Amino acid sequence: MKKIIAINGSPRRNCNTATLLECALNGAKDAGAETELIHLYGLNFKGCISCFYCKRKDKEHGKCAMKDDLSPVLEKIKTADALILGSPVYFMNMTSGAIAFMERLLFSNYLYSDEIPTVFPKKLPNALIYTMNMTEEHVKQFGIKERFAFHEGAFERFLQYKPEILYACNTYQFSDYSKYESSIFNEAEKAAYREEFFPKQKEEAYNIGKKLVS
Ligand SMILES: Cc1cc2nc3c(=O)[nH]c(=O)nc-3n(C[C@H](O)[C@H](O)[C@H](O)COP(=O)(O)O)c2cc1C
Predict the structure, then answer these.
(1) Which of 36, 131, 137, 184 has the greatest number of C-beta atoms within 10 Å?
(2) Which residues, 6+ apart, have CB-to-CB distance to 80 below 8 Å?
(3) Looking at residue 43, which CATH number applies to its domain?
């Protein structure tokens, strides 16, 4: 049975990002895969500390030497058949947790060598799911896709598979907007957008999950 792992790069376990990851895993499950959702913010770990163990000629390549809660996750990913990373956009980037995860996973499988672009043991179908307050217009205006193309290029290069991508814009951030200072948002418009588009985004996530394991 194929195994797919989803990594939740949001500190919130039950909100937009986690919901879309669960939909993707449901798609994978319906395609016959075993699934696992890992919440990054439940783990105690750091980003790459630049020790360069993974680049040493006398050491095992593709192995991150740091020992923390992320270590077994990185090993597990090597045995998986597909991977999905979901992240909210924070300050026009992925969350610090998602970036730290990316550093640990990708840099440890990278050699400074033209001949060997990756030491990751196989092609790993993968996907990136982003959630954000921004609208599609903001995404264009601020060049977000161009910015994220660098991360996506790294996933493609090191995991040898061009990631499937989902942008979930204009997310509903609070369950009750009246409780928070949030006057830049029009709650009614947000609610209407969510009602119309969140089901579509969930369906897209489901299809991505299905595709990754098919
Ligand atoms: C610290 C922080 C920074 C954020 N920065 C941005 C941002 O730069 N652009 C954006 O569109 N949304 C931003 N957001 C909103 C989140 O990306 C958005 O609400 C996302 O859907 C939250 O995902 P979650 O519901 O899974 O936690 C930010 C939220 C937080 C908490």
Answers:
(1) 131
(2) 3, 4, 5, 124
(3) 3.40.50.360
